[in-house]
UniProtKB/TrEMBL annotation:
Ranges where the Sigma-54 factor interaction domain occurs: 192-422
InterPro entries linked: AAA+_ATPase (IPR003593), AAA_lid_NorR (IPR058031), GAF-like_dom_sf (IPR029016), Homeodomain-like_sf (IPR009057), P-loop_NTPase (IPR027417), Sigma_54_int (IPR002078), Sigma_54_int_dom_ATP-bd_2 (IPR025943), Sigma_54_int_dom_CS (IPR025944)
BP term (GO), one: regulation of DNA-templated transcription
Descriptive protein name: DNA-binding transcriptional response regulator, NtrC family, contains REC, AAA-type ATPase, and a Fis-type DNA-binding domains
Pfam families: AAA_lid_14 (PF25601), Sigma54_activat (PF00158)
Coiled-coil residues: 165-192
Keyword check for ATP-binding: yes
Length: 511
């Protein structure tokens, strides 16, 4: 086998050795560096419509990377790239010898001094170039270019196939997002329960703001249905067939807030083996719902303010801003204005968020919605409990539900109905476990939750440990105004780590 044929065979084998372009390019670099004095290799695409150069992959001694870095071109530069007389291989021992290469590499690889360009074509169109560069001038000779003569087609095919695969993955992600949106639309076909009664005023506000892209701030007690209202805004907007991404700000540890919200680049930190989109990028084109916004620490509030102002994010470990087309809906059960006065929430962020506030009344202020919600819940539980017909509820039991204070709002009602169905075993539902009297029962707080301090003084009626724990945590949150971490927070009062508390709350369905 001749030297040229062996070289062609080895490069082709390395290029086709992986379905991932970054790995293929790294394998190729490791072989080429044994024959050509290069410090790196990259693949650039010529984006005709947007008049840009897009660097899609790069490899050097440190490793290979998939990239999406774009450089705008002038019309004259585009004409130069479209020139059919442009040679298939070029040696530039001074980058400044070529205007387009100097313009691009001075921004993407400023250390490059010498360059060999291998032109890629697909269906007779200029696809882009493979660039082999060195950090010293006068590094390349004609014999190096001769080695590359036969590699136009392998590089063009591998690049084209990888691009097609990336496009298919992007289309798949888009289809999955649309399917999720469609399922949400189907699942919510009964619409918002109480829209024509206790939530009439709220829904009038929803109908008014949904067609616009203005930021919305939803305020309401825990469990009152803030996510339902946020979803109603999304499904009534022009973004209804785009992603709706919910973020529980209170459930993200402080150290992970940036990487979860904004994503990260490959190699940004130990364990970052590939690029990951953050919640904001996942919601691009649609709506991001920032629940429990009041739990964000001040440091994260600063970065969120920048996103609201610029509608761009920068991934952790990255430098290129990512533009966002996004609708922001935020929610909290806390008094943000009071937090501003206390210095625990930024005033400028509050002004940015409080464009269109919506206050959701607690369930105790819309008791007329209770029968509607109960009927809706029974229909939902019907198949789960494998019942042939809806269980009955005596009028006095329904009255008991309407008279109850519901400190846990709709979330507590869901649990109460489920518990009654479990206990009824097909008989009419009974809610005697609810305290609806004016005076609290022994061992209960005024809100209706069991808080047993001394088990020896409790009644013989026992509830599950999970129920007891959930009630106790809810009680602690009410005492602290919903604050989880920091001085005076529930975690401090319960003497556990905030992350441990969040984990238990999530397990118990409190988040």
């Amino acid at each position: 086998m001749s030297t040229e044929l062996k070289f062609f065979y080895e490069v082709t084998q390395h290029l086709s050795g992986s379905l991932q372009l970054d790995k293929s390019l790294k394998h190729c670099f490791d072989y080429l560096v044994q024959h050509i004095p290069i410090d790196g290799i990259y693949i650039n695409l010529f984006m005709q419509e947007s008049q840009e150069i897009q660097m899609v992959a790069h490899a050097d001694r440190q490793g290979g990377q998939l990239l999406d870095r774009r450089i705008a071109l002038t019309p004259e530069m585009c004409d130069s790239l479209n020139d059919r007389e442009r040679p298939p291989i070029r040696i530039l021992n001074h980058i400044s010898m070529d205007g387009v290469s100097h313009h691009v590499l001075s921004q993407l690889i400023p250390g490059a001094k010498s360059l060999m360009l291998l032109r890629m074509k697909c269906d007779d169109f200029h696809l882009g170039v493979v660039g082999l560069y060195a950090n010293q001038e006068q590094s390349f000779r004609a014999r190096h270019a001769d080695l590359l003569q036969s590699l136009h087609q392998p590089f063009s095919m591998v690049t084209a196939f990888n691009l097609q695969g990336r496009n298919l993955l992007a289309e798949k992600a888009q289809l999955e997002a649309e399917n999720r949106s469609l399922r949400r639309s189907i699942d919510s076909r009964e619409d918002v329960i109480g829209a024509n009664s206790g939530l009439r005023q709220v829904m009038e506000q929803v109908e008014a703001i949904a067609p616009l892209d203005s930021t919305v701030l939803i305020n309401g007690e825990t469990g009152c249905g803030k996510e339902v209202i946020a979803n109603a805004i999304h499904t009534r907007s022009s973004r209804a067939n785009k992603p709706f991404v919910k973020v529980n700000c209170g459930a993200i540890p402080d150290s992970l807030i940036d990487s979860e919200l904004f994503g990260y680049e490959k190699g940004a930190f130990t364990g970052a083996e590939k690029r990951k989109q953050g919640y904001f990028e996942q919601a691009n084109g649609g709506t991001i719902f920032l629940d429990e916004l009041g739990e964000l620490p001040l440091s994260a509030q600063v970065r969120l303010l920048r996103v609201l102002q610029s509608r761009t994010i920068v991934r952790v470990g990255g430098i290129e801003p990512v533009e966002l087309d996004i609708r922001i809906v935020a929610a909290t059960h806390r008094d943000l204005q009071q937090m501003v006065k206390a210095g625990s929430f930024r005033e400028d962020l509050w002004y940015r968020l409080n464009v269109f506030p919506i206050a959701i009344p607690p369930l105790r202020h819309r008791r007329e919605d209770v029968p509607l919600l109960v009927h809706h819940l029974l229909e939902q539980f019907l198949s789960r409990f494998k019942l042939e017909r809806l269980p009955s509820i005596a009028p006095e039991q329904l009255a008991k539900l309407q008279n109850y204070a519901w400190p846990g709002n709709v979330r507590e009602l869901v649990n109460a109905v489920e518990r009654a169905m479990i206990q009824s075993r097909g008989a009419p539902l009974v809610f005697d476990f609810l305290n609806t009297g004016g005076e609290p029962e022994p061992g209960r707080s005024g809100g209706g939750e069991t808080v047993v301090i001394d088990p020896s003084r409790a009644s013989d009626h026992l509830v599950s440990l999970d129920t007891m724990t959930a009630k106790y945590i809810e009680h602690a949150l009410r005492i602290t105004g919903g604050k989880i971490h920091g001085s005076g927070g529930a975690a401090e009062k319960l003497e556990i780590h905030p992350n441990t508390l969040r984990s238990r709350m999530k397990k118990l369905g409190l988040m």
